[in-house]
From TrEMBL, chain A:
Belongs to the bacterial solute-binding protein 1 family. It comes from Roseobacter insulae. One of its GO terms (cellular component) is periplasmic space. It holds the Pfam family SBP_bac_1. It is found in: Periplasm. This is ABC transporter substrate-binding protein. Its main location: periplasm.
């Protein structure tokens, strides 16, 4: 048996210090060795399990082709990316590559010198392979591209249940608001609500309502980026949105993207408003209604007003503070390699649509079960998304609005909806105050 | 006279030796004081690093207009304070903040003291119950909020389901999207989450109240209610003072629970000042304005603290 006192006698203070120094040195060795390698941090708000599996496959392929470069994937969220990136930029601890953020967010970062120009990556991917105009939304005032699209999305498609429509005697998909309201009223029965429109204090309400303003023939900004809310179109949009409230579940007052898609996919609502992710979710989670599901562009106030599809233009960009810009650009370009890119698109078929012609025409992409089962819906979403806009790019005549991210983040448009629809406040006064609040952000 | 009274000459110390001893003592005192300074230096440094620096930094930031991602800013002096004080949002958020704090704190104290009294009794499974009661406090706020959001859910939530099944309501209640439901729900969830802290502290104090006090009260004919108000409550006063002070500070600056449950909505009905700080800093990228809100929050808490401490001091005297 050892004598404890002998052990303590055997370790002198000098010896203990030497041991500590030696241990520290040994512990530091692997760090020095790994510091010779490059580790890229990749952020994305799109983190569904199947998508993450696809990302891992893309990472594995890139790492195999580029020894010494490691890529780590980290998930952010649609509601949380702005604060996370603001903190990352201010601390200097930025990710090396960010994907799937809306285009208007990057424009704002680029305008503040936080984003690396992307022109050479677009060239590496193949500028001619993009659909015409696909990168227009990423063009900055200085002529550079701030990023590129990793996909297109049609976020405000109207999803319908053909079986419920037939039961209610509705033969055609609604084209106007009046038709939509009538259809929802006819289908709202037996515990099923008409629609899951978002009325929450969140970005979904803001982004969807921007679409509703356009569906009324209005716009948030004019082509000189002056606030253009105070007009009849906004009043009509608010009136329509208020009239739909009784056709939505009570909890829609707190709905965001997750609740909205779940309400339709679970069968709790007769119509839905979302991207093509509905297709995969319905087939996986509620197969009995899978054959009855279809989509159209969201109705407008009158048939004369063209549809306005909200496309957030899911993007790829590289923060300027990245220490590994060269490697990040190589990785960004590799995300568009056909095998990996197709796998990524198939992870959420119809949700993120290809931006490259060669991918859309690739038999491997078209061979996906969901895409084959719903060819008309996928084609419609592709067309709608290609002609889509968002708050940072309201029309082809609008210049890029680099304050759009802050307008969305401020929640003033969602507040306007809640004040008028939920609180019943005077629409004229609320629109006036919202105009002033957006003005203040634009001039701030 | 006292001055005339002194030690006998034989006992008087040698002035030279006395001076030397005095000098040695002074040197020793100096060394001790240096050692003392050295020993408290780490504490002072840590205090400066974790309290003084952030505090001064926040006040300094509040005098600038700063774009959060780049931290570039321009000097605006007191403009941020002027702007926020004339903004309706500050006052509505402060009002929501006070309603939330008073509401949830009151319920925490009532539930906490009540549960501590129950767990102080000799009941079955007391040990197990004492462990389980801590569960809400230890569970992550994110998990707790997710669970409550499912309970509150209009389409699948158990609360609405049970109430509809029981025939109490015809349509689901919107717990988080309308007022006053949203504020009541947030206050209730906050009380559920944090009342175990009150239970732990009160239970510890209850176990140290001498039984003789209760015996004397019984002999004097005091019933259970009289014993509670005349014996238990006065004995709990000191611990309740500390609990109320701590929980008031913690509840006043609560962020995650409210943000995750309602996001401050509907409109700004449950938007408390910490949510405004977050919005200014990270949604609007106005770090200077966010710092100004944070400084005002600190001042409000300071005022409450001073008033509270004065009152307790007056009661003590």
């Amino acid at each position: 048996m050892k004598n404890p006192s002998m052990i303590s006698k055997g370790i002198s203070r000098r010896g203990a210090l030497q041991g500590l120094v030696a241990t520290t040195a040994v512990a530091a060795m692997p760090m020095r060795a790994s510091a010779q390698d490059v580790t890229l941090r990749w952020w994305s708000p799109q983190g569904a399990p199947a998508q993450v599996d696809a990302y891992m496959a893309q990472i594995a392929a890139f790492e195999a082709a580029n020894p010494g470069i490691k890529v780590v994937f980290e998930t952010t969220s649609d509601e949380g990316y702005a604060p996370q990136l603001a903190a990352a930029f201010s601390s200097g601890e930025v990710p090396d590559i960010v994907t799937h953020l809306p285009s208007f967010a990057i424009q704002s970062y680029y305008a503040n010198g936080l984003v690396e120009p992307f022109n050479d990556v677009i060239e590496a991917i193949g500028a001619d392979d993009y659909y015409p105009g696909a990168n227009d939304v990423f063009k900055a005032a200085d002529g550079n591209y701030v990023g590129t699209g990793i996909g297109n999305s049609a976020a405000n498609m109207l999803w319908l249940r053909k079986d419920l429509m037939a039961e209610a005697g509705i033969s055609d998909a609604p084209r106007t608001w009046d038709a939509l309201r009538s259809a929802c009223q006819a289908m709202q029965k037996n515990g099923i609500y008409g629609a899951p429109l978002p009325y929450g204090r969140n970005s979904m309400t803001t982004l969807i309502f921007v679409g509703v303003i356009h569906q009324a023939g209005g716009q948030v900004f004019d082509t000189d980026l002056n606030v253009a809310l105070d007009n009849q179109a906004t009043r009509d949009a608010l009136e329509f949105y208020a009239s739909m409230r009784e056709l939505c579940p009570p909890g829609a007052t707190n709905y965001s993207w997750g609740e909205a898609i779940t309400a339709f996919v679970s069968g709790a609502t007769a119509t839905g408003i979302y991207t093509g992710r509905v297709l995969g979710n319905v087939n996986a989670q509620n197969p009995p209604i899978a054959d009855s599901v279809t989509c159209v562009t969201y109705p407008t106030k009158s048939a004369e007003i063209p549809a306005w599809t909200f496309n957030d233009f899911p993007s790829v960009f590289i923060p300027k503070q990245s220490n590994n810009i060269g490697a990040a650009k190589a990785f960004a370009a590799s995300l568009f390699n056909p095998d990996g890119y197709i796998q990524q698109l198939h992870a959420a078929p119809g949700h993120v649509l290809p931006v490259l012609k060669s991918i859309n025409n690739n038999p491997a992409y078209q061979s996906n079960d969901i895409i084959q089962k719903y060819p008309a819906e996928v084609e419609l979403m592709s067309q709608a998304a290609a002609g889509g806009f968002n708050l940072g790019y309201e029309s082809a005549n609008h210049p890029s609005n680099d304050k759009a991210g802050e307008v969305v983040g401020s929640g003033v448009i969602a507040d306007m909806v809640q004040r008028v629809v939920l609180n019943g406040e005077n629409a004229d006064q609320v629109i006036g105050e919202t105009t002033a609040a957006i003005d203040s952000i634009m001039n701030g | 006279m006292l001055a005339a009274v002194g030690p006998p000459a034989a006992r008087r110390p040698d002035p030279q030796r006395y001076a030397m001893a005095k000098q040695q003592q002074t040197v020793l005192e100096r060394q001790y004081s240096r050692l003392g300074l050295l020993l408290i230096a780490p504490t002072v440094l840590v205090f400066c690093a974790v309290i003084a620096y952030p505090l001064v930094s926040a006040i300094y930031l509040s005098l600038f207009k700063i774009f959060t991602p780049t931290l570039e800013g321009t000097w605006v002096g007191l403009d941020n304070y002027r702007t926020l004080l004339v903004k309706g949002e500050f006052w509505t958020s402060l009002r929501a903040n006070l309603i939330w704090t008073v509401g949830t704190l009151t319920l925490q104290i009532i539930f906490g003291v009540g549960m501590a009294l129950v767990l102080h009794q000799n009941i079955w499974f007391r040990s197990l119950a004492r462990s389980l009661i801590l569960f809400p406090y230890f569970i992550s706020t994110v998990v707790a909020v997710l669970v409550w959001k499912w309970l509150f859910n209009d389409l699948y939530g158990i609360l609405n389901h049970l109430m509809i099944s029981a025939g109490l309501i015809d349509w689901p209640i919107d717990y988080l999207g309308t007022m006053p439901n949203a504020m009541i729900s947030v206050i209730l969830v906050g009380a559920w989450k944090y009342f175990p802290f009150v239970v732990i502290a009160v239970l510890a104090r209850l176990q140290s109240i001498p039984d003789q006090l209760y015996e004397a009260a019984r002999i004097d004919g005091a019933g259970p209610i009289a014993r509670f108000f005349d014996v238990t409550l006065p004995q709990l006063r000191e611990v309740l003072v500390v609990i109320i002070m701590l929980r008031a500070i913690w509840d006043f600056k609560e962020f995650d629970l409210i943000f995750l449950l309602t996001g401050g909505g509907p409109v700004t009905s449950t938007q408390t000042l910490p949510l405004v700080v977050y919005k200014e800093a990270f949604a609007l990228n106005q770090m200077g304005m966010a710092a100004a809100y944070a400084v005002i929050m600190m001042l409000i808490m300071l005022v409450f603290m001073i008033l509270y401490m004065r009152r307790t001091q007056r009661e003590d005297t």
